Amino acid sequence: MDSRYILEKPSVETRVSVSGADFICLAGRSVLHDSRVPSVEKSGPLPAYTNGPVFCKPVMDGGSATAGKSERSSPKGNRFSPGGRILHDMGKADLGDQKDTGPTGVLKRASPTHCAGISRQLSGGSMHLDIRNPWKQTAQGQNVPLTEIQPLPSTHIPVPRNRKPSGHADKEVMAATVLTSLSTSPLVLCPSSAPIGNFAVSEPSSRAWKEMLSASYSSSTSGNWSWDASDQSVPSTPSPPLTNDTNKNFLLSSHGDDVNEDVTESGHFMFEDPIPRKRKNSMKVMFKCLWKNCEKVLSTSSGIQRHIRTVHLGRNSESDYSDGEEDFYYSEIEVNMDSITEGLSSLTPTSPTTAGPPPVFPSPLTDVPHSEHINMNGSQSHAPTLLSQSAPSTLCHIRTDHAYQGHVTHVRTVSIGEKRQPATSTHTAVNKNHALITPAAKSTPGTRKPRGEAKKCRKVYGMEKKDMWCTACRWKKACQRFTD
DNA sequence: AGTGCCGGGCT
DNA sequence: AGCCCGGCACT
């Protein structure tokens, strides 16, 4: 098949052969701006970035590129059924002998939902959030704005009854995650320049995949750090990092086992690849719930699936059973950790070298006034982007309010107008750093940091409600609740 | 004048 | 470490 760049061919359909099943990836025309985006089939490493949405649709082995069309015009008119049905059917047909086919999740990863998130964008320093789900279309093939799509009741979504539940699904998810990660880290993939289409059946590669998958899977069973725009909560986060290392710290310190998963993943890649590298732009794949009015974003697919399963589908949260239906309700998004970090770094003026993540991420993910640091491509205007919506007036962060009290951490959810603070432990460290830095600043009089514009506790609560002030304000220290 | 918070002292 | 406050910078 043609391995030209998408730019050269508006409707590039890239067939990826995995375990005997073919996947056709369609590159959206609207995003055909980056000639750096090679088709997946191109021999050699996967593209580090696929600029713009890449729509993937699974087709049966031997199926034609037009399969998608016929699928979409499914007489059932279920806008989800085409891709999903085919996908699942394929899963049954082709995944019968999973031990030989390698990571079955790879196949699943190629599901439309996932592929939608493969899109990446290289806009400098900007966070890319592409929550487009190409499969959310009407039976007539018309695109429908996500916001207009009412998630169908689970009972309306045809799901193969004999799907293998729980663990298996998670494996698939993990495999999908790995695939996504690989697509992000080109060098990690096929160091031997094995054609993508063959790597699934290549013995060494297959084994490596299995190992990675098993390890990744075993390390990610629960605890997904997340922030949920819908409930206005944001994970508590450590101080913002300035370096990638700090980014990692950010993740580690703020996301517990989720972090482990992330670390595990990257760790595998690190081991697999002798050449140290960092993800360009420090892009991190997140999973966004597409359920209407739900902006839940999780770091792992299993997490988002669990979220959807328990919150939206009303299934038993205790059960890991998954019929894959959740796949339809979330998509991947790319989060530029660097951007987040940048935004976060400004969170704590006195901690220029502290660590933190996203959100990013995170945690250090967001600082309300600094949301502009994170540009979400694709939804420039509204769209509750991860961070852009964290306006002071609507912000609700989990934070520690008494950093000055050291270990006496007291986490609480703060409402309206309160900014998220870094985790207490980290923050304490920050203060220490600040203490160390202060003397130097002292030597240069006149460098006193400008007063922040944010209202502080005094202004917000007034003297009469001094008991509501943050500890720092009460002690006439730099306000920790309304940071600049 | 009001506010933010550094620096330092006290417990 | 927690707490408090004088005093300065800034608005």
Comma- or semicolon-separated keywords:
single chain; 484 residues; alpha+beta; four-stranded antiparallel β-sheet; three-stranded antiparallel β-sheet; 14 helices; 11 strands; 32% helix; disordered N terminus; DNA-binding
Question: What is the gist of this entry?
Answer:
It is found in: Nucleus. This protein has 484 residues and is of the alpha+beta class.
How would you characterize this protein structure?
By secondary structure, the chain is of the alpha+beta class. The protein has a domain of 315 residues. Helices cover 32% and strands 10% of the residues. It contains 14 helices and eleven strands. Strands 6-8-7-9 form a four-stranded antiparallel sheet. It has a three-stranded antiparallel sheet with strand order 1-2-4. A hairpin with a 2-residue loop joins strand 1 and strand 2. The radius of gyration is 23 Å and the shape is globular. The N and C termini lie far apart (54 Å). It binds a DNA duplex (11 and 11 nucleotides) through helix 14.
